[in-house]
Write a structure and sequence with these properties.
The chain has one domain. It is an all-alpha fold and 126 residues long. The longest helix is centred in the C-terminal third of the chain and has 33 residues, at 93-125. 14% of the residues are buried. The radius of gyration is 18 Å and the shape is elongated. The chain is 79% helix and 0% strand. It is built from five helices and no strands. Helix 1 (2-30) packs across helix 2.
Length: 126
Amino acid sequence: MIWRLAADAVVLVHLLFIVFVLFGGLLVLRWRWLALLHLPAAAWGVAVELLHLYCPLTPLENQLRQAAGEGGYSGGFVEHYLIPLIYPAGLTAQTQLWLGGVVLLVNLAIYGRLLRQLLFQRARVL
């Protein structure tokens, strides 16, 4: 039971990380210090998609599921609702490139806005 809960926790952390990579820049607009966490996370997210890297959370989750005696993603809320968001069916290399591009564009737009705000504030001070 504990291994299954741990595996479910890894999936939840994985999903939250993905959401942070995509939309964490919006939090940076409010709390600029979060850029110290978000920029490396966003860079990792883009790298994983564009370079087809393997996220270390995936093998960790699989090991925990095997320790729990499970072989797949059947049953439970987490497996039914969250896993298809993280591991969509039919995910191809081309789709991953598009996803990486979307992550990059969303974050470039957000940080572009932040840069404009900072430049505008600096111009007002001078």
